[in-house]
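Sample intake — Glycosyltransferase
Collected from: Spirosoma pollinicola
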Amino acid sequence: MTSISIIIPTVNEERTLARTFRQLRQLYPMPDELIVVDGGSTDQTISIIQQQIQQQTALADYPPIRLIQSPLARRSYQMNLGVQVATSEYLCFLHADTSLPDDALLVIRETLSQSTIAAGGFISLMRGPLRTRWITSFHNFIKTYYAPLFFRPYLFFFKGARLLFGDQVIFCRRQQFLDCGGYSDDLPIMEEADMLLRIVQFGRIRQVNRVVESSDRRLVKWGFWRANALFLYVGVLWGVGYSAEKLKQLYEDIR
C-alpha cells in the first residue's frame, strides 16, 4: 500500500489543533506519519503537539508524529520543511483548522493511482460551531473552475485542471512535488496555486467529490461582505500578476 505523510503547518493554533488531532485518529486507513511544522507559536500549540507525541506511545495503531521547528513563520516555507523530512510517496498538506473525512487517505490513494493525475484536493465546506457558510463555500467551489478559465485557460482549464487552494487540502506525489520545485519559500500567500501551476506539467489537477470542513474564523473576524470581497479581490489581483507580498498586506492571519 502506498505510504502517505500528512504535513500540518502551525502558528498559534491552540484553539483548533486538539480537535484536529482527535479527528485524525478517526482516519481509516491511517497515515504513515504526521509531520507538524511549527513557525514559532507563542501559545499552547507546542504543548498540545508534545502531549500528542507522548500519547502516541500508548496507541499501537497511531502513526508517528514528528514536530519540526521552523525558523520562519511562513506556511510555504514550513510545508517545504515538512516535505524534506517526509518519507512517504504521497503528500497531504492539511491546515490545522481543517478536518478530513475518515476515508480521506483511501480517496487520495485511489486518485493518485491514476497516472494522468498529478495532484488533487477536496471540496471545502466552511463552517463554525453554530452555522455553515453555504454561500462562501459555494463560491470557493466554483472558483476552482472560473479562476483557471479566466486566468490560465490554456495551461489549466482546457487540460481539465482545477485551481485549488489550501483549505481544500492539496495532495500529490512527493517526487513530482520536488521535481516542480515545491512551494516557493518567499510566497506569503497563494502558495498552493503557484505550486499547482508548475506541477500541472505532470498531469491533471483534480477536485475530488468529497468534503473537508474548514473554520469560518475569517468570516467571523471580518464579516461576510468584507471577507468575501477580500477573497475575490485577492484572487483576481493574483490572477493578473499582482505581487504576493502586497497581497499579503490585505490578508491578515486570523487565529
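Post-analysis note: The domain at 4-126+163-216 is CATH 3.90.550.10 (Spore Coat Polysaccharide Biosynthesis Protein SpsA; Chain A).
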